[in-house]
Model the fold of this input.
Amino acid sequence: MRRESAAGADIAVRAVVAGAAAFMVGIGCWAWWSPQAFARWAHWPVHVHFIRDGAVFQITIGLMMLFALRWRDVLAVVLAGFTLANGLHALNHFLDLHVGGRAADPWILLGVAALGLAAWGARMRRLRVRRRHRRP
Done:
């Protein structure tokens, strides 16, 4: 493949990823902020907690797609998405404690998110150290 066509293909792929990510984040935010309206549109039963849980994962998939456009390191992308998914999932469980579930659930999810954040921070530091050592 010639350089011009390879560059064009790369631009096209990046545009598709960015557009799909925006769609995922947009739909996820709508479902999270207005689960009743989303359920009516999707012809689903209204179960606010489960719609919001699904929305969290929709949002984090979109964000991971955007992170992949910025970072070349797969572990950085995955750890960032894992951390956000568990953090937002914990938020859902905090908000919905009055609906059901165990009181410990949000704290467990938050703890898992904290572990992910620590691992992501360590990975990002490692990548910065590597970059510094490569420069002349």
The chain has a mean pLDDT of 91. Residues 3-134 form one domain.
